[in-house]
Amino acid sequence: MNHLIAAAISLTLIGVMPANAQNVEIFPNGSRPSGKGAPQNFVGSGRLDPQFAEPGQTRMSIGHVTFEPGARSAWHTHPAGQILIVTSGVGWVQQWGGERREMKPNDVVWIPAGVKHWHGATVTNGMSHLAVQEAVDGRNVDWLEQVTDDQYGKTP
């Protein structure tokens, strides 16, 4: 595992596992079904492969999200922030009022709590990333409006 990915995940894990955890758990590859991104939360084809999702021992969830070219999330926020770790392809991330920025494999992106943003593939390339976030009061994301074609941009 790339040292940047390991460091980002390690930093996220610090302090979220309770002191009373008793057993090591293994979540076997393929034990959680893939799902399509809900049409109200994604434009284009997005797939979510949960790595684990709040199994009771932690408030954290991690999903491996794959975007086909042209696909992106809707605008959204996270109550405790989010870490994106790009695993393949080329993608974009943009915070409300900011410039669209390119992401490539092994880039680690920090999105602070409450910052309105979107992320997804470029027009010409697919992109996959690990999305790491914590739940606050039982929720880890607040979905907002779709990213319009004009906001997304038609040219790379």
List the helices and strands and how they pair.
Elements: H1 3-13, E1 35-36, E2 42-43, E3 46-53, E4 60-67, E5 72-73, E6 76-77, E7 82-89, E8 91-95, E9 101-103, E10 108-111, E11 117-121, E12 127-134, E13 142-143, H2 149-152
Antiparallel strand pairs: 1-3, 2-5, 3-4, 4-12, 6-13, 7-10, 7-12, 8-9, 8-11
Short description:
This protein has about 160 residues and is mainly β. The protein is built from two helices and 13 strands, in the order H-E-E-E-E-E-E-E-E-E-E-E-E-E-H. It has a single domain, classed as Sandwich (Jelly Rolls).
Description:
With 156 residues, the protein is mainly beta. The chain has a single domain, classed as Jelly Rolls (Sandwich). The protein contains 2 helices and 13 strands; from the N terminus they run H-E-E-E-E-E-E-E-E-E-E-E-E-E-H. The N terminus is likely disordered.
